[in-house]
Amino acid sequence: MVTQLINTWTREPLEESGMTAEHTWIWREMISAIDEQDLSGQKVLDFGCNQGGFLRLLYDQRPFASGVGVDLAQKAVDIAEARKDGRPIDYRATSDLAELGEIFDLAFSHEVIYLIEDLARHAEQIASVLKPGSNYYAVTCCHKDSPLWASWRPRIQAFSNINVPDHGVADIAGAFRAHGFDVAVSRFLASALVPLEGPNDYFQSDVERLDCYANWKLMFRMRRL
Q: Does the keyword S-adenosyl-L-methionine apply (predicted)?
């Protein structure tokens, strides 16, 4: 991951501002898929929180003691702070989890891990802030094992303000195993109801969209040993 802060993630403001609405149904599926049920005493981290929607939804569905969302994009963090509406969440612009000075019971990222250049550093940082026995859930369909990635990667790079690496499942799993995690993965949207929106820049058809979400949208569960 780049170490400097950035203003926004993308060169296309409408795409960035639309991510909350686009991802909410997936976030609901993420919440229903995790092992943890009662979060009332837990401190939660969202790595790459963007405009903060995931932690807000998580708190509304399964209230937690406190949450921290971190992101490189300062404008996104400012929006997240403005929208937290009294929830016990702190959004911060940082590239270094050590700056938080906190230890967490649970961590998440959604469509962030594929943008992290140095997976080993990311795994090391997550290990440093996560309690032993706790889980980090990282969800992505952007990986080189997906047949769509060859066309997606240049599309994403065209509007991204950072470089887009070329990671596969083995790269992600290997980095975390090397830093003391037990790694498991599921095709977690295989049975989900998928909104059908017709062709767009990423999917040539709704059938292609269904195939992607059923087979290539993956939830990694990294459990710190």
A: yes
Q: CA-to-CA distance for 172 and 185, rounded, in angstroms?
A: 11
- The rounded distance, in Å, linking the Cα atoms of 1 and 118 is 6
- Third-level CATH fold of 13-224: Rossmann fold (3.40.50)
What residue type is assigned to position 57 of the chain? Answer: L
- Return the percent helix, strand and coil in the chain, to nearest 5: 40, 25, 40
Would you give the DSSP letter of residue 6? B
If we measure between CA atoms, which residue out of 97, 20, 27 comes closest to residue 52? 20
Are 59 and 90 in contact by the 8 Å Cβ rule? The answer is no
Q: Is the C-alpha dihedral spanning 112, 61, 75, 130 positive or negative?
A: negative
Tokens coding 147: 């047949």
**Beta strand spans in 40-88 (E):** 43-47, 66-71
Amino acid (one-letter) located at 125: Q
Euclidean distance between CA atoms 209 and 192, whole angstroms: 12
What is the C-alpha separation between 1 and 164, in angstroms, rounded? 10
Q: What are the pLDDT digits (tens) for 44-65? A: 999 999 999 999 999 999 999 9
For the chain, the domains span 13-224
User: Which residue, among 67, 9, 69, 61, has the nearest Cα to 30 in the 3D structure?
Assistant: 61
What one-letter code names the amino acid at 82? A
Q: Distance between the two ends of the chain, CA-based, in angstroms?
A: 24
